[in-house]
Inverse folding.
C-alpha cells in the first residue's frame, strides 16, 4: 500500500499508509479529525515495478536514456570480455 501525506489543522503534517481509493483524507493520529491529503514531495515512479506489471518498455526506455546520458558524458562502462 502507498504512503500518503496529510495535514491536520491542529497538529500539522503526518503520513499514513492506506489504500489508493482512500487517499483523499485520513484521520489525524492525535485528535482523530479528518485531514486532507497534501503533496509534500514529488511522487516517485518505480520503473522496475511498472515493467513487472505489464509495461515492459518502461524499464528499457528509462535504462536506454540513462545509458545514453552516461555515454555522452564519457562515463560509460564496458563489460570485460571475461570475468
Amino acid at each position: 500500500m502507498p504512503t500518503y501525506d496529510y495535514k491536520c489543522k491542529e497538529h500539522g503534517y503526518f503520513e499514513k499508509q492506506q489504500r489508493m481509493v482512500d487517499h483523499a483524507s485520513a484521520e489525524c493520529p492525535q485528535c482523530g479529525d479528518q485531514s486532507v491529503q497534501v503533496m509534500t514531495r514529488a511522487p516517485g515512479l518505480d520503473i522496475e515495478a511498472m515493467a513487472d506489471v505489464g509495461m515492459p518498455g518502461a524499464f528499457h526506455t528509462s535504462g536506454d536514456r540513462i545509458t545514453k546520458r552516461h555515454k555522452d558524458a564519457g562515463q560509460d562502462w564496458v563489460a570485460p570480455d571475461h570475468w
User: Anything to note?
Assistant: The chain has two domains: 3-38, 44-74. The first strand starts at residue 3 and ends at 8.
